[in-house]
Amino acid sequence: MSANIFVTGACGYIGGSIVAEFARHKGGLLESARIHAAVRSDEQAESLSTLDVSVVKIDLSNPYALAGYMIRNDVSIVIHTATSIDAEVVQNLITALKKRREANGKKAFFIHTSGLSAFDDNTGWPFGEVRDIDPVYFLEKQCTDSYIVDVLVAEQTQAAGLTGLIVMPPTLHGRGGGTWNRLSPQIPALVRAAIKNKQVYKFAKDREVVLTHISDLTTFYAQMAEAILQKRALPAGMSGYYFTVSHSVRWWDILDCLAATMHARGLVDEPTTKVWPSNAFAAEALGVPINFAHSMWDSSPKVVCVNKDLIGWKPVWNRERLLQSIDEEIDDFLELGVPKSSLLDSLRQARG
User: Fold this and answer.
1) How many domains, the chain?
2) Parallel, antiparallel, or unpaired for β 163-168 and 109-113?
3) Domain harbouring 224, CATH code
4) How far apart are CA 2 and CA 216, in angstroms?
5) Global pTM value
6) Which helix (H) or strand (E) segment is 255 a member of?
7) Residues 264, 219: one domain?
């Protein structure tokens, strides 16, 4: 019998790309798995009609509806990408998956999508460089107010008899493979702000940013799902952290390249960058609350990825390929516009 995989945020940038990757995957046990795509609206559901997946419009705040669906469809793997910060939703999903496990006694896996910006000193991380094989859970536990959801996943999956895995991507780039939101929050917002102001801006301090192309990230999820279906032993629970960095580059290199390329296309007045006049100006131009401007576009976590080798992940994108693809990033924004159903939406709402 084929496995059933339930993906939340199935029309988001990450979740939508995972659903598309899984639906089109060839080879291995994943090819025969049934993908269940959780969405929020009829319009989103319609967008997924071109893929061979089971689409469900479901309220993630309703644990009873979630449990009923998972039991009826014998869901064995949940991949949660809808939100990295809503503890209630995470708890509801874990509770529902636990009830499915209790109903038939089969093993169940909860894969939570978090983020590496948590480990940046700008956001209050006090421990410096960290590896995913370090005692990350215990370090986060000392900063519970900031890392409460990761800690909850590690503790509650273990308490529920589930296998918990926490995937932590860095800043992402590239066109997503999904059917709804296909843009990342960061680079398209920089393009939008530059067009609006006829100028590419940068923060006063240059920092090294860790990155991954969305296609490399979806490959990682596919390889992790395949490892689970093959019943391979993976670090889980309080040891189940997986950092997914493929390369790094200095922010100023990205922005210098962006300025030169946009100027050549007549989109900005100057081929060089200027420093943001103020944090308030940056936040307004980027469309986020002022406290998010630095964390989203000036993040520089010091991390080392080790557990990726257990998955067999070998990303194909690197610094040079990113800088050579800036034209594509601009084209994607001009074609697709601002990201929809994304992290930026919730931040704009918070901004009021």
Assistant:
1) 2
2) parallel
3) 3.40.50.720
4) 25
5) 0.95
6) helix 251-264
7) no
